[in-house]
Amino acid sequence: MCHSFFLIFIHSFFLIFLHSFFLSNFHSFFLSYFHSFFLSYFHSLFLSYFHSLFLSYFHSFFLIFILSFLFSFFLSFLFSFFLSFFLIFIHSFFLSYFYSFFHSFFFSLFLSRFHSFILSFLFSFFLFSFLFLFILSFSISILSFFLIFILSFLFSFILFFFHIFFLSFFLSYFLSFF
Fold first, then answer.
1. Which has the closest alpha carbon to 72: 173, 154, 141?
2. What is the residue extent of each domain of the chain?
3. DSSP assigned state of 113
4. Which residues are CB-contacts of 114 (< 8 A; sequence separation ≥ 6)?
5. By the 8 A CB rule, do 78 and 152 touch?
6. First-residue to last-residue Cα distance in the chain
7. Transmembrane residues, as ranges (predicted)?
8. Which of 148, 178, 175, 3 shows the shortest CA–CA distance to 83?
9. CA 33, CA 31: separation in Å to the nearest integer?
10. Ordered alpha helix ranges (H), the chain
């Protein structure tokens, strides 16, 4: 009787123990596995989504911003170059024209001959046009070029900065979804 009791007790104990051990072990294993799998899956999914969203947002934002800023810088450079070139050319031409006219006029007053007026006008016109175009216009060109360049750069920076900022903001917002 005692022998059978102990046998049943030990048998049932080990059976229950092993059954509960393996059952709880596998149960906890699968529960923890699926729990961790789905948790890590959704966590990584949302994390990668937001990570890619913000990465693509900032990437597209800075890409659009830098490209548009360089484009506006190039446009302002061309604008300042051509504007300064035409301004210098017209400025030097009219300066040499009026300066030679007044020089020849006062020179012919002293000589009081019309022939000397024409000769002195032509001579002084070509002389002063040469001087203005190749000597004085060089300094004017440098000054006006840098002045117009700085002004156009500041204008483009102030004007295009807000435009580029909002444009790149909205473009990067829409591009980040794709």
1. 154
2. 1-31, 57-178
3. -
4. 108
5. no
6. 78
7. 5-24, 30-50, 57-75, 81-102, 114-136, 142-175
8. 148
9. 5
10. 2-111, 114-131, 137-175
Residue 11 tokens, joined:
């048998």
pLDDT tens-digit profile, the chain (178 residues)? 555 555 555 655 555 555 555 555 555 556 555 655 566 556 555 655 565 555 555 555 565 556 656 665 666 566 656 665 666 666 666 666 666 666 666 665 565 555 566 666 666 666 666 666 566 556 655 666 566 556 656 665 666 666 666 666 666 666 656 5
The residue assigned the tokens 């149960």 is 27
Cβ density class 137-171: b for 16+ within 10 Å, e for less: beebbeebbeebbeebbeebeeebeeebeeebeeb
CA distance 96 to 37: 85
Write the CB contacts of 44 (distance below 8 Å, at least 6 apart in sequence). Answer: none
DSSP helix/strand/coil, 81: helix
Q: What is the DSSP letter of 99?
A: H
CA distance readout (Å), 24 to 16, 20, 30, 39, 165? 11, 6, 10, 21, 59
